[in-house]
Amino acid sequence: xxxxxxxxxxxxxxxxAYEWIKARIADGTFSPxxxxxxxxxxxxxxxxxxxxxxxIRLLEAxxxxxxxxxxxxxxAMVDEREYQHTMQTLALVEGYAAALAAPVLPPGAxxxxxxxxxxxxxxxxxxxxxxxxxxxxxxxxxxxxxxxNPQVLDLVRRGWDRLxxxxxxxxxxxxxxxxxxxxxxxxxxxxxxDGAPAADVEQAVRAHRLATLDAFxxxxxx
Length: 222
What we know:
Keywords: DNA-binding, Transcription, Transcription regulation. This is DNA-binding transcriptional regulator, GntR family. The chain is mostly helical. It folds into two domains: 13-75, Arc Repressor Mutant, subunit A (Orthogonal Bundle), CATH 1.10.10.10; 80-220, Four Helix Bundle (Hemerythrin (Met), subunit A). It has helices spanning 13-26, 38-45, 49-61, 80-101, 109-123, 129-144, 150-165, 170-173, 176-193, 198-220; strands at 5-6, 9-10, 65-68, 72-75. The strands form two sheets. The chain has a two-stranded antiparallel ribbon with strand order 1-2. A two-stranded antiparallel ribbon has the order 3-4. It is elongated. Mean pLDDT is 88; it is low at 5-10.
């Protein structure tokens, strides 16, 4: 196993294992309830089980992994209430961030967002929730990334990170939501392209986020 570095500093095997497992929890490869078999993970990473065990302990301390006797380590289940609260908060702050960013979007930002939405559209035929979720985050980051208020921007990024920590994507549970999401993206892009009022952009982004939450709740409580 190659020794990786961060800012020129070599990472320990346990840190590499921690980052590797955490990334797969975040992108949905290791979904809620997925059993983390130490020997299997060690084989995949080409290390002994010792750094894997240390990585699992770190992830357990962060609430990303749970450990039960006779069951072992597994990816923690989704906290529905926390997900709902995070999505509601993100709807508010991301909508406002996008409205503030709209007048100062850098050249090429809209073209980049349109290209990402085209990729998202291309995913619909052979749907892969993890890839769609990653592209979706990239799309939104283009729209709110130019927000000139660093505190609002920080709140948005914290919200997205919290969603990753909750290990869920509505697209995994409700694939039909993906097609609606792409259409809503097009609506938002149309508003930005037409120079619509900031309030209209804010409302569209907020409604888009809440529609995703509504789809998740409708699926969980039909």
